[in-house]
Every structure is written in C-alpha cells, then in structure tokens.
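Typical record was shown:
=====
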Amino acid sequence: MDLLLDLEGRDQAQTPQGWPVPVTGVEEMAQRIRLRLTVRRGSFRLDPELGSRLYAMPRGEAAVMERFAREAIEEALAPLTGVRLEEVSCRYDPAADRAAVSCRFLWRGQALETEWEG
C-alpha cells in the first residue's frame, strides 16, 4: 500500500480532515508508473536508478522519438514486476518545443494509460 500523491501539488493527497489517502491495487501501480516516468533518472540521490530519461528524448520525427521513449520507459519500469508496455505514441509541437508521450501498459490483466509531457 502507498499513499496517494498529488503530483500537480507535489505533495500527498489528503482527506478534508487532513489525513493521508491510501492507494492500492491498480491505482497504486498507475501512480508508481507515473512517478517513475516523471522523475528525472539520477536526480534522486537515495535511488539514482529511479526515474526515466524521457526528459532527454530527441525532438522531431515521431519514429525516432517513439524508439527512444520505448527504451527509456522500459528501463524506468524494469523494477516493477508484471508491468508490460503495450503501446507508445509521441507527439511534438515545434512552436512550443514540447514533446508528449502517451503510453498503454498491461498489469495483471488490466490496462493502464498515462501521458508524459516535457
């Protein structure tokens, strides 16, 4: 069991009474995946292997971006038992210099989807 994180607020989610919110099952695994994809690999001193290299993804051609993203995602999620990357698609907005990666995973027969932007 983990505690639910408020990734936008960069804190733990809380009930109206101020209690931390537990998270289990598919929600817990989805949170673990999002966390591993959003943290820059090597930036957490206590676990330098935590995180992904998505921040370093080349910009431009979708096929090149998708190959890099697939490799970076599989590397980041290697410690998570039973998670399988099913699909990756990338988009790039040259005007804003923003890349987006959409991913679909399979865990214990359940599909999980997430998106990363950088």
